[in-house]
Design a protein that fits this description.
single chain; 75 residues; 4 helices; 69% helix; elongated
């Protein structure tokens, strides 16, 4: 929900949760190297780099205050 409303915490949470999978995928590649495992690792790396670049590019609103300004929240 927060990501749809473009709030800052949701964007950071998405980057963190996606990048937390990288060590496990790297471990799997070192355990038994296969084209599929390398492909999944590379795909996840590309996704993380893309998310970080989008996070740097866009200025996101600040939670509830930004949602009120954009008309997303009504009491």
């Amino acid at each position: 929900m927060g990501f749809w409303r473009e709030v800052t915490w949701a964007a950071y949470l998405t980057v963190i949760s996606t990048s937390q999978l990288l060590p496990f995928e790297l471990y799997e590649v070192f355990q038994q190297m296969s084209a599929l495992r390398i492909g999944v690792l590379l795909l996840n790396l590309v996704i993380v780099v893309y998310l970080i670049s989008q996070l740097k590019r866009h200025t996101l609103t600040l939670g509830l205050y930004g949602a009120c300004l954009n008309g997303w929240y009504s009491s």
